[in-house]
């Protein structure tokens, strides 16, 4: 049974709206967006998002009535405690941004190449 994402990981209203939009435009086999954490080199951790065709038993899931579905595996969730996923459109650039990422492991909070959650 999948766990609900804890309150320690917040997905803002703008981020949820963009995820819903992206999922509607995606291939029909895509049912969610997966948040992942990678790296750990001199640049710290990298936080990103990708489309997902399914969720695993151990994944935590955030799903709402509006069609937003986000999955996170248990390892990534450890690095996301206290984080906020937001979507920023400043008129020039649009991207998902990870705010308040787990400082103990480093990381910029920038989502490299996931402006479209690809």
In short:
This protein is α/β, with parallel strands linked by helices. The protein has one domain: HesB-like domain (Hypothetical Protein Aq_1857, Chain: A, Sandwich), CATH 2.60.300.
Number of strands: 8
How far the N terminus sits from the C terminus, by CA atoms, comes to 27 Å
Look at the structure and give the CATH class.
Mainly Beta
CATH topology title: Hypothetical Protein Aq_1857, Chain: A
The appropriate CATH architecture is Sandwich
Number of separate structural domains: 1
Helical proportion?
10-25%
* Helix-strand category: alpha/beta
Strand percentage lies at 35-45%
Radius of gyration: 13 Å
Q: Which regions contain 5 or more consecutive residues with pLDDT less than 50?
A: 111-118
Main β-sheet: number of strands, strand sense, barrel status? 5 strands, mixed
Q: What is the H level of CATH, i.e. the homologous superfamily?
A: HesB-like domain
Summarize the helices and strands and which ones pair or pack:
Elements: E1 3-4, E2 10-11, H1 13-25, E3 32-41, E4 44-52, E5 60-63, E6 69-72, H2 74-79, E7 84-89, E8 94-99
Parallel strand pairs: 1-5, 2-7, 3-6
Antiparallel strand pairs: 3-4, 5-6, 7-8
Structure report:
This protein is α/β, with parallel strands linked by helices. It has one domain (3-105): Sandwich (Hypothetical Protein Aq_1857, Chain: A). Helix content is 16%, strand content 36%. It has 2 helices and 8 strands, in the order ββαββββαββ. The protein has helices at residues 13-25, 74-79, and strands at residues 3-4, 10-11, 32-41, 44-52, 60-63, 69-72, 84-89, 94-99. The strands form 2 sheets. The protein has a 5-stranded mixed sheet with strand order 1-5-6-3-4. It has a 3-stranded mixed sheet with strand order 2-7-8. A hairpin with a 5-residue loop joins β5 and β6. The longest helix has 13 residues, at 13-25. The protein is globular. Residues 111-118 have low confidence and may be disordered.
């Amino acid at each position: 049974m999948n766990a609900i994402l804890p309150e320690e990981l917040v997905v803002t209203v703008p981020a949820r709206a963009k995820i819903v939009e992206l999922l509607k435009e995606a291939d029909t086999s895509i049912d969610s967006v997966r948040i992942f954490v990678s790296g750990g080199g001199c640049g710290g951790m990298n936080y990103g998002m990708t489309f997902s065709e399914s969720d695993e038993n151990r994944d935590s899931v955030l799903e709402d009535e509006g069609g937003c579905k986000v999955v996170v595996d248990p390892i990534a969730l450890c690095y996301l405690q206290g984080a906020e996923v937001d979507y920023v459109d400043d008129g020039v650039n649009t991207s998902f941004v990870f705010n308040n990422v787990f400082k103990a492991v480093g990381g910029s909070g920038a989502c490299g190449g996931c402006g479209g959650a690809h």
